[in-house]
What does this fold into?
Amino acid sequence: MGAVKLLTADEEKMLMGRVQTFLKLDRRFEAFRAAAVAAGGREPGLAEFAATFGGRVDASQMEELFSEGHHCKQAMVEANFRLVVSIARNYDNKGLEMKVGVKGGMACR
It folds into this structure.
């Protein structure tokens, strides 16, 4: 747990912006994929999805966007879990079991 540091406000804002962009892109890809499958086609990949951006994004850039988005999302999850645990520790000796505090903190996501 100590290996994951708490985020600064600026780090959190930066990661959250990238996560939000990734989630929008991911939803758009899922809609694109579902439409292709519903039309009787095969599941498209990121290269076909990138082509829908009119040449503004190529397949390797699309792969990088998805990879970075997954990385930022994972970093947020780990840092937020670290924050929940650090807060739960403060209440551990005050009558609230740490596992209850962690479980409650994780339920808020």
Q: What stands out?
A: The chain is about 75% helix and 0% strand. The chain has one domain: 9-107. The CA atoms of residues 2 and 60 lie 34 Å apart. The mean pLDDT is 84.
